[in-house]
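User: I'm putting together notes for a lab meeting next week and I want to include a structural view of one of the chains we've been expressing. I don't have a solved structure, so I'd like a prediction I can at least talk through. The sequence is below, exactly as it appears in our construct file.
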Amino acid sequence: MADSTISNLPAGAPAQSTDLLPIARGGSNYSLTVANINALASSSITVGTTTVSGGTSGYILYDNAGTLGNLATTGTGSVVQATSPTLVTPALGTPTALVLTNATGLPLTTGVTGTLAVTNGGTGVTTSTGSGSNVLSTSPTLVTPVLGTPTSVTLTNATGLPLTTGVTGTLAVSNGGTGVTASSGASSVVLRDTNANVTWNNSYPALTEITAAAGTTTLTVASTFYQHISGTTTQTIKLPDETTIPIGTAYIVDNDSTGNVTITNNAGTTLAIGTPGAAGYFYSWGNSTAGAQWGGYGFVPANVSWGTAGMVATGQSITAGAGSFTSLLLPGSGSGTVTVQSAAAAGTWSLTLPTTGGTSGYFLQTNGSGVTTWAAASGGISGPLSGDVTTPSAGSNVTTVVNTNNVPSGGNAYSTLSYSSTITPTVTKAITRYAITATGNLTINAPSDTGDNDTVYFKILSSGGSYTLTMSAYQLPSLETVISWPYTMTSGKEYHVIVQYSALRSQWQMVQFIGAY
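Assistant: Thanks for the context. Below is the predicted structure for the 517-residue chain, given as C-alpha cells.
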C-alpha cells in the first residue's frame, strides 16, 4: 500500500513530527508518518479505512491482507530492519538460510553440526587417534606414531629402523643385501656359524707377478696375498706398516728368480732371505707397532720331498745362517744319537767323502783339502797294546811318563807299576802312554789337558786278583751300551784303553777298550 497519514494521535506520542511508525505488510516494511502529534486527542486511530482503537502492549502493527494486524515482539532493544541490523545475543533458531561469511565466535563443540569436509578445511572425519597437534600434509613431525600399513611410504631419510622387526622380505644383492636367508646354493653369500667359523671348498687369492730388478717392492694393505718373483737378479720385498693392517694379515712370497729375495719389515730390517726356489709365509700377529710383530714360516721348495720315507732334496746344498744350524743329529733306529757338529770357529772348508764304503780295518784320511779316502793302517797302534810295543822316542808329538805326581815313582811308561788307587794322567804331548800293573781296584780320572785330539794310551794288567777298573768322567759314545763302570778285570789279564780329547764336545771320550787277552 502507499504511505498513509495518521492524524489526531493521543498525547504522549512521539515528541517529533518526523518520527516514524513501522508497519509490516506481507513481509514488506512500510513507514507511517505521524502528523499533528500535539493535536491527537481521540482514543483510536484510523489506518486507511481501518479504525484501531486498541491493541496488545509490546506488539507491532502490520498489514494483514488489507487488514491491520499486530504481532508479538521478542527481546529488547531497537526495532530491527532488514539491511545491516546489529543484533545483540539473538536466538536465531533454525534459519532457512544463513550466510556466516563474517561470523565470529562460533563455538565448534555446540555451534555446528555435521562433519567439515577436507575440501572446506576440515578433516572429513569425526574421530581421531593419539594426542598432540593436528597433522598437516607438509613436513609434519610425528611422535611415536603407529602407521599401520601405508599404501606407500618413502624412507629415504628414515633412521633407527630395527632390521629384526621393522622389515620384511629379503634384501637383494643389487641393493646391498645378500639376496639369501641361508648360506646354500651356487653364488650365495657365505654366512658364518655361531662360532664365527666358515666352511668352503676353496678360495682363490690374487697374485702379483714381480720381475726381479735389484729394487724394492713395498707392500700395503691393498697388496695381494701371493707375491711371485721371477727374473735373473735380486729383489727386496718390504712388508706393510703393521699399524695400517688388521691383525692376521698374511702374504706368501715365492722366489722363482735366480737371485736372492730379501724380505724386510716396514723399517727395512731383514726378516728372511729367500734363496732361488724358496718360498715363505709371513703374517702379522699384532699391529701396535709399525714392524716388530711379524711371524713367518718357510715352505719346502718343489725340489724337496718330505714324507714317511724321509727328506729328499735334489738341490746341491743345504745352507744355514750363521749360528742357526751347528749340529746334525742322526738318531739310531733303536736308540742313541750320532751328532755331527762343526767347531765354533769352523773356518771355511769342504769335506768330500769317498765314493765307497771302504774296507774293513781301513781308516778315513784327508788329502789336506778336505777330500777323504779310505786307507789301510801302516803304523801306530792298530790293535791291543802288548809287550812288543816299545817305548817311543821323545819328540814333539810323543812323550813318556816318568816320575810324576800321578804315577808311582821308580819306573817309566811301560814299567810294571804296582798301583791300587786313583790316577789322574798328566798330558804334555799329543800322544801320551801309560803302562800300569793294578794291584787293587783302580780309578783313572780324565786329564785336565784340553788340547784338541790329544790322546792317551793305557796298558793295564790286573795282577793278583780280579780288581775293578773305573774310567771316571769320560764320555762313552760307542761303548755305553756294552760296558759299565766299575768294570771287573780278570786276574792275570791285560786291558788296553785309548782316550782322546774333543774340543768340539769340550770333553775326554773313550775311543777304544780292549780287554781280557
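A couple of points you could mention at the meeting. The first strand starts at residue 5 and ends at 6. The first helix runs from residue 108 to 111.

User: Perfect, that's what I needed.
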